[in-house]
Design goal:
The complex is a heterodimer of chains A (178) and B (350). Chain A has a domain at 62-174: Alpha-Beta Plaits, CATH 3.30.70.3270. Chain A is 22% helix and 13% strand. Chain A is built from 6 helices and 5 strands, in the order ααβαββαββαα. Chain A is elongated and about 95 Å long. With 350 residues, chain B is mainly α. Chain B has one domain (75-348). In chain B, the strands form 2 sheets. Chain B has a two-stranded antiparallel ribbon. The chains are: A alpha+beta (178), B mainly alpha (350). At the A-B interface, helix 2 of A face loops of B.
């Protein structure tokens, strides 16, 4: 039979020699190996203090974006919900009233926008589908929660802070992306 | 200061010594558990416990607190008195060993010579063997009183292992006793310290290896930790134990480790002797302190080797364990004993 890889080794069934039955040489060999590990570098990342750096293409929690004047970009067109393979996104559209021009960029906006983080597979297709650059995946991941309903993130969770009134929070939420 | 012909100072002095040694061994055992975890971590490229206190130094106290706060469970079908007695017996037997170990020569306070050994009895090493055998009762009683077949089988396994390896241990010890001509640990150490004589390891390398392997088996340490093989043999004789009673069993294992290290250091590595240093030229108090430090260093090295082996070698199978004990260790120990005896006779010119 042909081996699948060149790493396959045939099992040896021959009885142990006297030196092998003594165990001590092989035990000493093993101890030398473990001793050499004392001087090896530890790969541990001490988590709450140190954090592993994400790659620039990391896809984490979603963010609903605002434009530079602090208006919501989302027009509730539903393309993200259609693109979503996990069917995690639901939304309800509403019409912009007079006097709300500083809140919403266009005449239609999302009154309700929810993502179920337990369904979401963080594939980023919603980000690709969005014609308004209104949704993108940030560099943070979903924190733990005690209930299933806690994982359904609404607009209060998803919406980025207003860049006009809270510039620091906006910059922190925006991260390295643009 | 003699009342009723009793030297009260001697009693006070011994009581103080007992208190110091018992609490010191408990404290060292506490930190041995910490050292075990740190050594395991370092050998496996991990940082180990480092959250409780600086460098994780408060970890053993956190562990102890956790064990005390856990629910105390006594199975309804168990023999309650024996169930409680088991861990106590294991702990007592472990602590009793320290009474004959010479920790150092002697100190002088107000013209009074105080030996740093609780009891220099002339059958010291025999006493240790007796007490260690008592430790097997802790294991047996614990396993039997649990009224659980797995605990009972694990206890039998542990007891048969301890008894098998005690034989080879005793036989390898006889060679040392032939060299020193005494059962008193103090005399054995003094013989190694005397000018012109070497440590017993020079005369007894094979005997030391046998003794060391048997000590590993006696302390239930890897590769002989079958009494507590959690995954393949359904844990050990302490399966039904919880809370601090389990803690006592685990703790007594660490005390056993310290004591067997101390015995090995005394028998084969000159006890409190510092190599290339003539203690008789120093003031007795300074020599005593250096001696204690030397013995503790030797113990620490032995404990490190114990742990190093534990985190390197996998566990033996039970038949391999018995084969090694009866078919390899005992013949080797007998051979070692015969050769030693023959050489002593040759040297004496009989």
């Amino acid at each position: 039979m042909q081996a699948l890889t060149n790493r396959a080794q045939e099992v040896s069934r021959k009885p142990m020699t006297f030196m092998e039955r003594l165990y001590i040489p092989s035990i000493l060999k093993g101890m030398a190996i473990t001793f050499s590990h004392i001087f090896k570098k530890q790969p541990t990342i001490r988590y709450p203090e140190q954090k592993r750096e994400f790659s620039p293409v990391f896809r984490g929690l979603h963010v609903l974006n605002r434009d530079e004047e602090g208006r919501e970009r989302c027009t509730a067109c539903g393309l993200c919900a259609v693109a979503c393979p996990a069917e995690a996104i639901t939304m309800e559209a509403a019409e912009r009233e007079v006097g709300q021009e500083n809140l919403y960029r266009e005449e239609k906006y999302a009154a309700k926008y929810e993502i179920n983080m337990l369904r979401c597979i963080f594939c980023g297709l919603c980000e690709e589908a969005c014609p308004k650059d209104a949704i993108y995946l940030s560099e943070t991941f979903a924190p733990a929660n005690f209930t299933r309903t806690g994982f359904i993130y609404g607009k209060d969770h998803l919406l980025i802070p207003n860049p006009v009134t809270e510039p620091e929070a906006y910059a922190a939420a925006k991260g390295q992306r643009n | 200061m003699t009342l009723l012909a009793v030297d009260w100072l001697l009693i006070i002095e011994k009581l103080v010594l007992i208190a110091i040694i018992v609490f010191a061994s408990l404290g060292i055992a506490l930190y041995t558990t910490f050292a075990e975890r740190k050594v395991a971590a370092v050998l496996q490229d991990r940082p180990g416990p480092n959250r409780a206190g600086p460098f994780g130094l408060l970890q053993p106290f956190a562990d102890g607190l956790k064990l005390i706060m856990k629910e105390e469970i006594i199975p309804t079908s168990s023999n309650k008195a024996l169930f409680v007695l088991g861990p106590g017996l294991a702990m007592t037997a472990a602590l009793m060993t320290c009474s004959v170990i010479p920790w150092s020569s002697h100190i002088e306070i107000f013209d009074r010579k105080i030996d740093l050994q609780i009891a220099d009895i002339n059958i010291g090493i025999l006493y240790i063997f007796g007490v260690v055998s008592m430790g097997v009762y802790g294991m047996m009683i614990g396993g039997w009183a649990s009224n659980n077949k797995f605990s009972l089988m694990a206890a039998l396994r542990g007891a048969s292992q301890a008894i098998s390896y005690e034989l080879a241990m005793g036989l390898s010890l006889i060679a040392v006793l032939m060299l020193s001509g005494s059962l008193s640990l103090k005399t054995i150490v003094d013989g190694q310290m005397a000018a012109g004589s070497y440590w017993n390891i020079v005369y007894q390398p094979l005997g030391f290896i046998i003794f060391f392997v048997c000590a590993l088996a006696e302390c239930n340490r890897t590769p002989f930790d079958l009494p507590e093989a959690e995954n393949e043999l359904n844990f050990g004789y302490h399966q039904e134990y919880s809370s601090m009673k389990l803690g006592f069993y685990l703790f007594s294992e660490y005390i056993n480790m310290i004591m067997s290290s101390a015995v090995m250091a005394s028998l084969y590595f000159g006890g409190f002797d510092v190599p290339f240093l003539d203690e008789s030229t120093l003031a007795p108090n300074i020599a005593a302190i250096i001696g204690v430090a030397a013995l503790l260093t030797k113990i620490a090295i032995f404990i490190f080797v114990f742990m190093w082996i534990r985190w390197t070698v996998p566990r033996f199978r039970y038949d391999q364990l018995m084969n090694l004990g009866w078919k390899t260790m005992i013949p080797l120990a007998l051979f070692n004993m015969l050769v030693t005896g023959a050489l002593i006779l040759l040297k004496a010119g009989v």
